[in-house]
Design brief:
The chain is an alpha+beta fold and about 130 residues long. Helix content is about 50%, strand content about 20%. Helix 1 (about 5-40) runs antiparallel to helix 3.
Length: about 130
């Protein structure tokens, strides 16, 4: 699904977006934990059975990770960085496409940046003409 979000729409859906993003982080951490266990626990090097069972657990975790990403991006939010906790909501200002920018830990969308700008180009919402944001 694609749509441009107003600031109000993005902020209204932010609690559910944050939950979806936290699920992505949790599933990523699960993948890392299982992969590390598979590589470092000698138990998985002694028998094929233990190795295959753990490898299947890893495959399921990887699948869940990608499904959680798809679940969030299906509502129109763009993941810019899982590690840095950055999400963007497409929006319009003066009929020009911009990104409403959210960083993990923020409780509302407070920043925006141009379509071709990244995190370093973030500007406070107060700096924009909210009447022109659609």
């Amino acid at each position: 699904m694609f749509s441009h979000f107003t600031l109000n729409q993005a902020n209204e859906m932010l609690p559910s977006v944050i939950k979806k993003f936290q699920n992505i982080v949790n599933t990523k951490n699960e993948v890392i934990r299982i992969q590390s266990d598979l590589e470092n626990n000698p138990k998985y090097m002694t028998t094929f059975k233990d190795y295959i069972i753990k490898k299947q657990e890893l495959n399921t975790a990887i699948t869940n990770f990608y499904k959680s990403i798809e679940d969030l991006e299906a509502i129109g939010v763009s993941i810019k960085s899982i590690d840095q906790g950055l999400l963007d909501f497409p929006s319009l200002m003066f009929n020009e496409e911009i990104w409403l920018c959210w960083k993990e830990g923020e409780t509302e969308i407070k920043f925006w940046h141009g379509k071709d700008e990244g995190f370093n180009g973030r500007k406070p919402i107060e700096s924009m003409d909210l009447e022109k944001l659609r």
